[in-house]
Amino acid sequence: METCRALLVDAFASEPFSGRAAGVVPDAEGLSASQMRAVARELGADATAFLLPSRSADRRVRYFTPAGEVDRCCHAAVAAHAHLHEERGIDAGTHSLATNAGDLAVEVTPEGVVWVPQPRPTVAAIDLDYDRAAAALGVDPAALSDVAAELPAAVASAGPSFLVVPVSFLEPLGGAEPDADAVAALADEHAVDGVYAFTFDALSAESTLHARAFAPGFGVREDPATGPAAGACGAYLRRVGAFEGEAGGGSERPVGDRVDARGIPAEMRFEQGHFVDRPSAVLVRVGETVRVGGRAVAAFDGSVAVPADEDDGIIEA
Q: Is this structure's pTM higher than 0.85?
């Protein structure tokens, strides 16, 4: 039986078994859509990047979840380019990537950090029922309402949309015990894909904030690393002026050495995943555009059987 090389690469991580796993098939030319779906199901990651030649870009990618094809996937893009930089020696710099959503300019730094541009963000403050949100998240309502005057809840999007909910300190956020059904109902009410709760009271002094993401819209109880949500939160922080003045709730807001006119750090580090034993670090830059970045490391490298083609001769564009 035919086989192809396949990897599991942990994105937004510097060591294996942390961050968020993505499948990477570095030589996918000749695979049909049905074969890609089957390989993605077998790898079991929530997304797999299949790399292909391209006439319009440096390379083409198709993303498949176990359920089917999707147009975008930030963590799989990070995983794929980190692998290409580490093993195949693609140069540091900007690389064009053809996707179903259009061509992207992906940057790889000499240190191996991969930066992926996000869609234009939107941010809208909302009147959140904090008692209900606290019950859904399994936290004391005061942990949300104590910071609401300075940092309102909002619906923010840089691709998928998230309900962004500031929390006073790490202790209540870390101790949160979400009710999955209640979180899903809260997300449905606000027409978002998930809830992104964060606090400036981070574990690491290098981190801007600590976040937990609950994404019932994607069938994910808790996500260890969420690039689009981090990008949306970065846009939110800029919109609400989060780095202007004193921090609420007693937590400090690190601003770094370089800031823009609104006080936003040139680069932010969002830690996530510690409470599901998959620590991650998502980097965010917010300016005219939003970019999300991170490192990645391979946890598995092997081959997978390619099943018979079930596409009945249909040629994929």
A: yes
